[in-house]
Amino acid sequence: MDHLFPVKESGQTKRRILEAAIDMFSQNGYSAVSVREITKQVGIKESALYNHYKTKDEILESIYLLFKNMQKNNGQGFPSPEQLQQILKAVSLEAFLEQGFDQFIRAIENPLLTKIWRILNIEQYRDQRAREIILQYIYKDTIDFLTSAFQILIPNQQIKPYDAKLLAIEYQYPIFAMMTEYLLLKFDDKETDELEKRVKSHIHYFTEIVKL
Question: How far apart are CA 68 and CA 152, in angstroms?
């Protein structure tokens, strides 16, 4: 986790405060957790917390920033158009889409990222910053990326000439729902095998419909 912070923010106490807040916010929501509870969890006085964060909201802002940094470090920064061209030449559409969901699963295996995802889902109706992150990083960026992929495949006559953005929406929105279900199952330590089979069936069905 250290490498995700600037050097000036790498103090052990500050990191412990952030980790404790992430754990507690992900379980109970931001509003239900007090500064006193965070400092008790960390084992410091309340006054010591304010040496690192001016307010509880500043801790939440740091969590949002951490999520953005983790997305970049986990490969959420999508490949360039040139790289995407090469990827789509090397693999089938079905394999390409399966790799996308596999990447999501690998990312969610990081417990810290999973907790931050929960915080975003809890806070999205209360906090505009959480909504903006979800709408931008989870929805818009993904749809834009898939639209670009389909815009490459259509002229190459690898798939039918449908509207590329509509294809992205038709494919990805069921995946968004299954991603949410996957997170809920993981939260309760339930099996995800059946869901993962459903994802693969969706991918296969979609590719069969759009291929020439």
Answer: 28
Q: What is the mean pLDDT of residues 46-57?
A: 95
1-55 CATH choice from 2.130.10.10, 3.40.1280.10, 3.30.830.10, 1.10.10.60: 1.10.10.60
pLDDT at 195: 96
Nearest by Cα to 176 from 141, 208, 151, 149: 141
For residues 105 and 13, the answer to whether their CB atoms sit within 8 Å is no
- Name the 3-class secondary structure at 159: strand
Q: Which residue has the higher pLDDT, 106 or 35?
A: 35
Q: Which two tokens stand for residue 75?
A: 């490969």
| pTM: predicted TM-score of the whole model, two decimal places | 0.85
Topology of domain 74-210 in CATH is Tetracycline Repressor; domain 2 (1.10.357)
